[in-house]
Amino acid sequence: MKTSLKNYLSITKKEWNGLVILVVLIILVLLVPYAYRVLHKDKVINFNDFDAVAAQLPAMDSASVDDVSKPASPVLFNFNPNHLPDDQWRKLGMNERQIAMIDNYQAKGGKFYKKADLQKMYSITADDYKRLEPYIQLPADMPAAIIDINRADSASLVTLKGIGPAYAMRIIRYRDKLGGFYKKNQLKEVFGIDEEHYLLIKDQLKLNPASIHKLNINQATFDDLRRYPYLSYKQINAIIQYRNEHGDYDNFDDLKDVAILDDVTLSKVRAYWIFR
User: Fold this and answer.
1) Is the separation of the CB atoms in 129 and 114 below 8 Å?
2) Residue closest to 153 by CA, chosen among 176, 134, 133
3) Residue 100 pairs with which residues in a beta bridge?
């Protein structure tokens, strides 16, 4: 037993030499960081020269960083900030970042109603506003123009509070799809125009029902009828099928015989259809 254990634990001379070398290597690896610290002293950085040079540089605040791309000599003139062309903003001393933020604000329906509204723009510094304020001209005291919603073009619509170019185009597309508006609150059916938007502009609107484009229901095709957002495909098919089976509709009451048409739907399309 002792002999076999002794044989198991015994090592050869070659193995012993290898073990000694391994131990030496481990010790050397552990000593390397200490030797490096002794041989390579960290140099102490002297900030005196740096501070001397830095003191010679002109002081810069956060606003002066934005001024880098501004004109050296801004030209001041009376202006209305609403939809002012970019080149005019540049003449006034605005840089490209500031102009982009103003354009983005107005593209989303933003509008300047009084001088102080320009000061609320994050891109306009206090110095910018102080310089521009005497030259801002807004027709705040002028009565708002009343716009015929069935005839207005996009240039007229963007003068409404909260209505930018994107909203103006949506209103025109929806109006053309219907054939016109028969009541003002139909504007709330336009994507993005909620109750808040509607209340802002309703008093600036008028409409003439006579300008609505009307459709002869007895000649209407499926494609003619599907432009109305109030009708489902099943309702359109039912209208045409009933007409094919029973002949032309004589008046609006005849449409009540189409079982799939409810009173709410009929009230929405009444203004758009004629029968002769």
Assistant:
1) no
2) 176
3) none
Mean pLDDT for 105-128 is 83
φ and ψ at 216, to 5 degrees? -75, 110
In this structure, the chain runs to a length of: 276
Q: What is the band of 164 on the pLDDT scale with cuts at 50, 70, 90? A: confident
- 193 and 172 Cβ atoms separated by less than 8 Å: no
Please report the pLDDT score of residue 8 as a whole number.
55
Tokens 């610290």 belong to 37
CA distance readout (Å), 70 to 93, 123, 233? 5, 13, 58
Number of H helices, E strands in the chain: 14, 4
| Angle of CA points 218, 220, 226, to nearest 5° | 140
Rounded to whole angstroms, how far apart are CA atoms 21 and 28? 11
Which ranges of 69-206 would DSSP assign to H, the alpha helix? 86-91, 96-107, 115-119, 126-132, 154-157, 165-178, 195-201
The torsion of the CA quartet 42, 46, 47, 52, rounded to 10 degrees, works out to: -160
Higher-pLDDT residue of 60 and 10 is 10
- Is the pLDDT confidence value at 248 over 80? yes
Tell me whether strands 215-216 and 273-274 are parallel, antiparallel or unpaired: parallel
**Residue position matching structure tokens 């390579």:** 40
DSSP-derived 3-state class of residue 165: helix
